[in-house]
């Protein structure tokens, strides 16, 4: 039985939960992270030296990094519809997954901590404005891609790229950004509704958690 370590409200844990749901993988989940069992212990660091969730245990195999976990699960279960076997098609999926983890995630960090978490260390007005602008800029990059494909991030079909990007899009829509400063991105809006037709996204993505 697959074990997932991490609280269900974590955006990175939800990537793994959504992937498991799409594939139909049975699992058990243990609550780790802020508000639950601390990851800052020797026990947890033995599993992930970064002391971050999620971590999975698949038998004797331990793995961390959420996007890598999603790729592993799709490969382990032969789901080439989610992660293609052909090198070029796979590269398109992985490109958008990596962009989500490196570029898009970094763009919204300050704004999210300020607006959603309301953390006192993230209340500088100029930095917040710059963070919101960077967030919008990166969602605009996704808007251009979705306008080209007319469907999903890597093309006509739903893939793992849409699992990770869908959760980021949901966070953007859920953030209390002033309406006057939120651009209208019609392709992203249509994409969000398209993803909402998937029961697994409604359970693990568009479920009220930013």
From TrEMBL:
Domain GST N-terminal positions: 1-81
Signal peptide positions on this chain: none
Domain GST C-terminal: 86-210
Top-level lineage group: Bacteria
SUPFAM superfamilies xrefs: GST C-terminal domain-like, Thioredoxin-like
Stored CDD domains: GST_C_2, GST_N_2
Name of the protein: Glutathione S-transferase
Organism listed in the record: Niveibacterium microcysteis
